[in-house]
Structure formats: structure tokens, C-alpha cells
Amino acid sequence: MSEWQQQGARDAQAWIEWLDSGAWERLVDSTSAMIPALAVEVARIAQDPDVSPIRLTQVISKDPIMAANVVRLANSAFSASATTITSLSDAVVRVGTRAVRQLVTASCLTGQLRNPKTYGTAAREMVDHAIGTAYLGWLVADRVDEDSDAAFLCGLLHDIGKFVILKLAHADRPVPASMTEARLNQCIQSRHAGIGGRALTRWQFADEIRVPVTWHHDPAQAHGHLPQAAVLYAANRLAHRYGFGCTVDSDSPLDDPIFSKLGIDADFLAELDGKAPGLYEVARKIAA
Ligand SMILES: [Fe+2]
Ligand SMILES: [Fe+2]
Q1: What pLDDT does residue 242 have?
Q2: Is 26 contained in some domain?
Q3: Would residue 171 be called left, alpha or beta, if left means φ above 0 and alpha means ψ between -120 and 50 degrees?
Q4: Is residue 25 part of a domain?
Q5: 20 C-alpha to center of ligand 1: Å?
Q6: Are 37 and 84 within one domain?
Q7: Total structural domains in the chain?
Q8: Handedness of CA 150, 156, 158, 164 (dihedral sign)
Q9: How far is the CA of 198 from the centre of ligand 1 (A)?
Q10: Shortest CA distance to 104 belongs to which of 54, 58, 69, 132?
Q11: Which has the closest alpha carbon to 171: 117, 127, 121?
Q12: CA 192 to centroid of ligand 1, rounded, Å
């Protein structure tokens, strides 16, 4: 290895060590553009299962794009009705507060993350993957009697660590020229869950979200939040089964001991196979 190749390797290693040191946390604070404070606030209101349709309509009506998206949802295949709806309040009633709350949460939390300049060319697909995993988390949680709103939010945020690392690498603390794409990807793969968990702590998300996100690839480590982490793990695996924003994994998840522990059987899987892809297509188009 030549002198300059050795220097390049040291520079790349130093960047990874900087990431591991946690010194990036301050940068994530000052550049809260990842998830704007207002969006977090709206998402928080939308997360309340007891929010009234009137309150929800009030919150949404402050954002014309969001309002238009809710009306689109009401007129989409999701609601299967012949009459066209034009008002936001009618749309909320037709679709139901739950579906509206999910859409609002998904739009708020992913709105800034599609920017290819900050997050690279795969950003759009990564957001689609987050939305697909959120809906699968909701369906799985519903089935196994876990909190489906929390599972939805966990699904949306499960790979947020990938976005954090990409934003640092592309914008806040650019990686050295010697960092190959393969090395950066390897770094993202091995560290995104832990980094995502740390970012969520910084942003004051509750443990019931932060812990499952941190352990979504290794739910047995999620002490105190094992079932929620297992639901998130399953949702992510299912997103890969259907190729939601990622390549298709054709291995059967029924052989996975975490699926059997959750009680996910062939019947439920067949039900998901029928329902999930259609739901995903509607959701990803409208939340965009
Ligand atoms: Fe992940
Ligand atoms: Fe994932």
C-alpha cells in the first residue's frame, strides 16, 4: 500500500471513530431540519388515539399540502366509495381518525428525508421502506395485541440511523474522499440501529420507541421492551418479503423463531400477503 493509500485508510478510519465517539450528537441538535420541531408537534397530536376528528381537522388544516393529501386518501382505493369528497372534515370522517393519524404521522416524520442532496439517491426508497414497515408494524401489532400506534411510529423511525449517518456523511461532516461507498455502506449497516437509538434519545422520544428501534435487528437485547422490538423486527422482515423500498427477500419468515414466538402463522401471513401490498401502494403515494 502506498503512503497516500495508507493515509486515506487512516482518514476513513478516523471518520468512523468520530462517528462512534458520539460527537455527532450536537450536530443532529443544531440541524433539526431532519425532523422539524413543528412536524414532531403535529405528529404528537396525531399519535393521540383519543384526539377528536375536530381537533385533528384543525391541526391538519394549517398545512394545505397535508390537508390535500387527507382528501386524496379519502378518495383513494383505501376508502372504496363512489362519491367524491372535497372537504377536509368530510375526509376525516370518511377515512376515520386512525388512518388519518397514521398518514399525518408518516408525512410529518418523513417529509424532509427524501432529499437526495442530503441523503443520497436511495433516500426515496428508504422513505418508502420506512412507510411500508410502519404499516406492517401496525398490522402485526394489531394481531398480537401490542400497541399498534407505537408499532407504526417504530416502523417509520426504525432506520432513522441510516438517515443520520448519511446526513453527516454528505453534509455536516463530509466523509474523506478515501471513504469508499462500500465502506460507508458497511458502516451504515453495522451502526444504524444504535445511532438511530441515540438520535431518538436526543430528540426525546419515549423508551417504547427508542428501545425497539435500537434493537430492531436483535430484539432479544431489547430488555423491558421485548415484544415491541419483536414486532418491529417482524415488520422489517416482512417489508423485505414484499420488497417495500428494498430488494425482495424470498426466505420464508415462518422458519424464523421470532415469528413463531409472536404467533405469526401461515394463515396470518396469507392475510398479510393479500392486504399489505395494496395498502403500501396507497400509503407511499399519498404520504409523499
Ligand atoms: Fe435496519
Ligand atoms: Fe429496515
Answers
A1: 97
A2: no
A3: alpha
A4: no
A5: 17
A6: yes
A7: 2
A8: negative
A9: 14
A10: 69
A11: 117
A12: 7
Euclidean distance between CA atoms 75 and 81, whole angstroms:
7
Alpha-carbon torsion angle 122, 167, 37, 157, nearest 10? 50
Query: Are 50 and 168 contained in the same domain?
Result: no
CA of 158 to the centre of ligand 1 (A): 6
Ligand 1 center to 45 CA (angstroms): 27
Q: For the domain that residue 164 is a member of, what is the CATH number?
A: 1.10.3210.10
The number of beta carbons lying within 10 Å of the beta carbon of residue 89 is 16
Which ligand has the minimum distance to the alpha carbon of residue 162? 1
pLDDT values of the chain reduced to their tens digit, one per residue, 288 residues: 788 889 988 999 999 999 999 999 988 865 456 777 667 777 778 778 888 889 889 888 888 788 888 888 888 866 666 788 888 998 888 888 888 888 888 887 888 888 888 888 899 999 999 999 999 999 999 999 999 989 999 999 999 999 999 999 998 899 999 999 999 999 999 999 999 999 999 888 889 999 999 999 999 999 999 999 999 999 999 999 999 999 999 999 999 999 999 999 999 999 999 999 988 988 888 876
For residue 179, the CA-to-ligand 1 centroid distance in Å is 22
Closest C-alpha among 261, 240, 244 to residue 252: 240
Instruction: Please give the pLDDT value at position 32.
Output: 56
Q: What is the CA(149)–ligand 1 centre distance, in A?
A: 19
Judged by its nearest atom, the ligand closest to the C-alpha of residue 193 is: 1
Q: Which domain holds residue 260?
A: 3-19+115-287
Looking at the structure, do residues 139 and 184 belong to the same domain, yes or no? yes
